Amino acid sequence: MSDLLLTPVAGPFVAEVTPPGSKSLTNRALVLAALADGDSRLTHCLFADDTHVMIQSLIRLGFDLRVDHATNSVLVHGSAGKVPANHAELFCGNSGTTIRFLTAMCALGRGRYVLDGIPRMRQRPIRQLEQLLKNLGVRINYLMNEGFPPVEVLGDALPGGIAQFGNAQSSQFLSAAIMVCPYANNEVNIDLVGEQTSWPYVAMTMQLMDHFGVMSEVQLDKLTAQPRMITVPRAKYSGAAYAVEPDASNASYFLAAAALHNGAKVTVHGLGRQSLQGDVRFADVLHNMGASLVLATNSVTVIGTDRLDAIDVDLRNMPDVAQTLAVVAMFAEGTTTIRGLHTLRHKETDRIAALATELKKFGADVDIHTDDLVITPPQKLTAAAVDTYDDHRMAMSFALAGTKIAGVTIRDAECVNKTYPAFFQDLTNVVTSHPKQA
User: Fold this and answer.
1) How far, in Å, are 18, 177, 264, 272, 335 from residue 291 at the CA level?
2) I need a surface site. Which of 151, 205, 295, 319 has the fewest CB within 10 A?
3) Which of left, alpha, beta for 231 (phi over 0: left; psi -120 to 50: alpha)?
């Protein structure tokens, strides 16, 4: 993989951008369409490492998918809740959504399925999903280390019933389970214990399930308004047309770039007040730091000002933008505290430790308090070569520093292929755009 030396921005820029489709929504839609009764056409899909391994794994499971890269679309012939293949070995790369969603999907099959990935995947926990599925009657075994992939699923239909689920290391565990629960032999009721991790992602899953014809019910605690039970009825998904939203996490880099440069203006199309993705609220964080914001129905615009102020914010509901904010914090006045980051230790890398290491290279003072990051910028930031840990979000977030500081190098920049292969070209296009003359 190659290193990339970035060039600071010469002056204010004005740009409009539509990032590729959401990875989270693309992989959810692929699973739901594959299980649906009838055909589905998915448009504005993301084609990147994480979605390629999902598509290839679904094909290995016997599903009929017609991929059209020219139009960013996939035609899926649904299997009406069945897994066509009775055995498969699935390589999931380092895609958490793929291995978690398909572990649950394989419970609907009848046979033996093995799911594995790259060495880092074998360090990413999956026990909480395994326990949830076992409580619903699924047989799952570990093939190497307890609690971690590779896993073996012995599919024999999904009994369903009642289960309990506590505060998790990833919201993907709960999303994985509820997506397959309509095809259980019995209605599924999941008692939710404690505060749920990244709940907006679970809510997004249920909204997408509704789009494909299955409505789940959520009961809220009367005192705290926190979710306390999910009921998934026995039902069937129906084939549907679905246009994937742009990825809100990836949009955060362009919005942050605007916030970092006085007079810069970036509009992201396809995201807005009606977005399914909780990460669209990152624009509010930038606004609270001093950037101007226009949030419309189907677009988000951020305008940079001459000063950003530090912030104390809890990102437990949108942890994927924590790295973006951490880099922005180096250019803010005062000390920024980012809270609620417990899920970051189990991502593509330990993102809390990686952030602390790389921020310090620029001269920032960084403290870690359990799952919180406290960042104080130095009097003068220095250039650095940023290690990316094979983590796409480390590369994309620290690229923002390169728009402000001369001499910033992103090592192994091609790791962005995981979710956004054209990121650096798109970033260049954005920061070199200028207002059109009348």
Assistant:
1) 20, 39, 10, 17, 17
2) 295
3) beta
Catalytic residues: 320
With a CB cutoff of 8 Å and minimum separation 6, the contacts of 249 are 22, 277, 279, 320, 321, 393
- Reading the block at residue 361, the tokens are 């290279």
Phi, psi of 204 (to 5 degrees): -60, -40
Q: Rounded to an integer, what is the distance from CA 16 to the centroid of its chain?
A: 22
Query: CA 421, 91, 142, 349: dihedral to nearest 10 degrees?
Result: -20
Name the strand (E) or helix (H) holding 285.
helix 282-289
pLDDT of residue 1: 53
Q: How far apart are CA 81 and CA 151, in angstroms?
A: 22
Domains (range + CATH), the chain = 4-20+246-431 (3.65.10.10), 23-230 (3.65.10.10)
pLDDT in tens, 50-83: 999 999 999 999 999 999 999 999 999 999 999 9
Sign of CA dihedral 345, 348, 353, 356: negative
Contact between 361 and 386 (Cβ < 8 Å): yes
Distance CA 382, CA 154 (A): 54
> Are 59 and 133 contacting, i.e. CB atoms less than 8 angstroms apart?
no
First CA to last CA distance, the chain? 43
Taking the model in full, what pTM does it have?
A: 0.90
Assess contact for 46 and 26: CB atoms under 8 A. yes
pLDDT in tens, 383-400: 999 999 989 999 999 999
What confidence tens digit (pLDDT) does each residue in 266-284 have?
999 999 998 999 899 999 9
Q: Which residue has the tokens 């690229």?
A: 399
Distance of alpha carbon 58 from alpha carbon 160, whole angstroms = 23
d(CA 333, CA 375): 11
Token pair listed for 119: 């060495």
Alpha-carbon distance 48 to 134, whole Å? 32
